[in-house]
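Example 3.2
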Amino acid sequence: MLRSLAILALTMPASAETLYSSNGPFGGFFGLWGADVSTSQSVAQRFTCAIDADLSTASFWIMNNSPQPGARITVTIETDAGTGSASRPSGTAIESWTMDTMASGWNPQQQTVISAVRPQLRAGTTYWLVLRSEALGGSSPVWNFASTGQGYTCLTLLDGTTWQASGLGAELCMGVTGTPSSRADLDHDGDVDGGDLGILLTSWGACSDCAGDLNGDDQVDGADLGALLTTWSAGA
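Structure, written as tokens:
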């Protein structure tokens, strides 16, 4: 009997929306299969948000080369490095979690992590869900491929750290949810107000990837201030 991780659905925001979702691992032409996650191979799947949203949860389906559960997994959501087929995880984690593999053998289990810091994911921006493990090959977790669908995946070389270029192929089983937000809600409290204005003003001037740069031009200036003021007191 399959067991999904009952990850406290009551704690999830009621307004959380699906930002990315693959199919499950069952019923595909190749049956149950996946990518090993071990000391010699980390695995990542790319996704792009359609809306600005504060991260709520990330989930994935995973099996186990070992008959015993418990192998440790590190889960991260990372920014993107490169473009197109050269795209790969940047190594810059937006948020990370560590958990044990629930699956015993090739009996897939869905596991879910809940965001504690609620980072904002921006519309049109590419991110990666990344799984790493210190388990040895042959007894390592296995991230399931979806029964159907294609996605951009990325694997490391045998050193377990150097990412190869991504490629469009079988899609890994994963999902991401988030609460729609205003890009100007810089402190993620659900309103655009003086707190957000203060954050914007502290980064005034030329900057790179700073919170107050609402239009992404590497400059916090009047254009960003105007964008913030147009959503003043709006719920995020």
